[in-house]
Amino acid sequence: MEPAIGLAVGRGTGPELAAVFERVLAGISGAYGTTVDLIRSDRTYHSYVSLKTDAEAESVREITQDDADHYTRFCRTLAVAGVPAVFRTAINAQSLYLVRRRLQAAKVDAIPTPEGSLLLVRDQAQGFYTGENTHVPGALVRTMAFSREITEKVITLALRRARQEWPDGRIDEIVMAYKFHLLDGALEEWVSESAARHGVHIGLYQPDTVNRNLIERGPRPRTVIIAGNEWADIMHVVLLDRFGSERQENRCTENVYLHPDANGLIEYQTVHGSADDLAGADKVNPVATIRAAAVIAERHAGCAGAALMVERGLRALGRHGVATPDAGGAHSTTAVVDALLDVLEPESRPVLMADS
């Protein structure tokens, strides 16, 4: 039976990147002598730009809700069918965060650092980003919530992923970055209870304190940062740049759905947005999408070593200056993908380690 993967496409450069994903996933699976069944959503979801262009002000809320409802159903359908993962291009954030609240999402990104790695877990299931809007004359009221249940689920996920990242169990520091002074002491109580239950120390800090500590000494070699999205959405790109020497245009990441209805479905995405200004120009940087296809092929389609194979291919392209204009090259999206597919070659034999 062929492995199955979901695919959801938004406006802007979404269709172009979906085509990149399909080509690269097919190229990787073909190199491994297998095929992957793609289950594509039957709706093209709005980006913020397309929503504002296509909709009158009064219908924005309705379309936002429709997109959220449809994507929620699509994810639940995939999960019920046993599909382990979905690749999604960028869509309107307001719709997306309605889905993330309903399905209780947390974003996970292990960022390599000079001395180790920083595991960033973004709490996307609660807080300001997941609020509901109420319109009253001359004002908009946004209502949000934090809960003990979601806080515990996010902490549990972070610790589970830390054990996967560092199997020997050593974690140098666990930090939570939340504006907890605004929450009447409730979050502090929940975190303390959870830390005791898991037998770990968790430092709960205001975002400015986390920033100060990172500026002064950087992350420890094995650092876990669990963060409210109010801080993490802004700082994710900064952490990539400052400690991981990475750009968001080249980075993919994953969202883990924690609600039972989603049954552990993992959603992969690019860190960059919909780039509507580049739509149809064949200039969007495909590297993050290429990496997402490689990670999905390796983790969910039986293509062991696919991520390393693609990284070797990307390094080969870099040596020859094959890149889109934003990355200092002069090549189209299609040309970059063509070049990558030409150099993909899985390992033919195991690598033997020399005696130390």
From TrEMBL:
Domain of life: Bacteria
Residues covered by the Isopropylmalate dehydrogenase-like domain: 4-340
Protein name: Isocitrate/isopropylmalate family dehydrogenase
Organism encoding this protein: Nonomuraea spiralis
